[in-house]
Amino acid sequence: MPHAIVLSETGGPENLRWQEVTVGEPGPGQVRLRHTAIGLNFIDVYHRTGLYPLPSLPAVIGLEAAGIVEAVGPGVSDLTAGTRVAYASPPAGAYAEVRLMPADRLVALPDGIDDAHAAAMMLKGMTAEYLLCRTYKVKAGDTILVHAASGGVGLIVCQWAKHLGVQVIGTVGSDAKAELARAHGCDHPIVYTRENFVDQAKALTGGAGVAVVYDSVGKDTFMGSLDCLAPMGMMVSFGNASGAVPSFEPGILSAKGSLFLTRPTLMTYTAKRADLVASARALFEVVLKGAVTVEINQRYPLRDAAQAHRDLEARKTTGSTLLMP
């Protein structure tokens, strides 16, 4: 029987347990998928802890993977057994050797994208696509601030933004991470452990502020991020790595320069099949042309998912991390 990482109750990484599971035949609109590589993301931590509740427990977490279609259910016409596919979408269940998956959430992989890189980039890369091309559509000459610039999303955002002619300021936690971010398009890495990122961002922009802040950190950076923005700038809060943003008075946005604030998710931006396919194609295009490279800097056996979570939460990882079935 196939195995999966099963979460029976929310809490710490120790609650992620390697167990045998039963996977049946695909129903209408479904495929049975054998995973070849699985992506690790911070949203997996949110599901594990209960910050983002799952529909029910026990459950298998994980929203990103690549694999090979083993069988298709009734009504599935655009995928066949043997097709290489990837996804970054609910329903959760990626931490498994084999699973059932809605066919309309899968994207067929082009020949130039291998399974490992697909699993490493679908969620992070499509996140970068909607952030840069739809939430705030960056243009050549813009200056932006990217928090966690050496992380999985951050490295892709830096490269993609640089490809579009954007000046990139990024925050990182160490000199080594600063060098990594710089090598991937970040013009001005700020080591936040010894530098005040607000002061640095203002100095780098001559006091004008940045057009947009992309913030996946949350509580620790949110208020400072508002101070980095130019008047009528856009604050994009898309993650809570340090904890949820505390409540605040909306009037602070007007006091700091008529700022815009949004809290987007990839799931909303790819809810329609057409948007999902367009986002994936845009990602594949910049990767295939070499404008964006995807760094797989950590690999763990799937059965060691608990350790992968510990390392992710301790900020010991950079770039993308894979769980290997």
TrEMBL record:
Show the SMART domains listed in the entry.
Answer: PKS_ER
Q: Which InterPro entries match?
A: ADH-like_C (IPR013149), ADH-like_N (IPR013154), ER (IPR020843), GroES-like_sf (IPR011032), NAD(P)-bd_dom_sf (IPR036291), QOR-like (IPR047618), Quin_OxRdtase/zeta-crystal_CS (IPR002364)
| Top-level EC class as recorded in UniProt | oxidoreductase
Read off the NCBIfam families from this record: PRK10754.1
Origin superkingdom: Bacteria
Which residue numbers delimit the Enoyl reductase (ER) domain? 11-323
Question: What lineage does the source organism belong to?
Answer: Bacteria, Pseudomonadati, Pseudomonadota, Alphaproteobacteria, Rhodospirillales
Keywords, A to Z, come to: NADP, Oxidoreductase
Pfam families recorded: ADH_N, ADH_zinc_N
PROSITE patterns in the record: QOR_ZETA_CRYSTAL
Would the keyword Oxidoreductase turn up in this protein's UniProt record?
Answer: yes
EC number of this enzyme: 1.6.5.5
Protein name per the record: Quinone oxidoreductase
Q: Name one GO molecular function term.
A: NADPH binding
GO cellular-component term (any):
cytosol
SUPFAM superfamilies recorded:
GroES-like, NAD(P)-binding Rossmann-fold domains
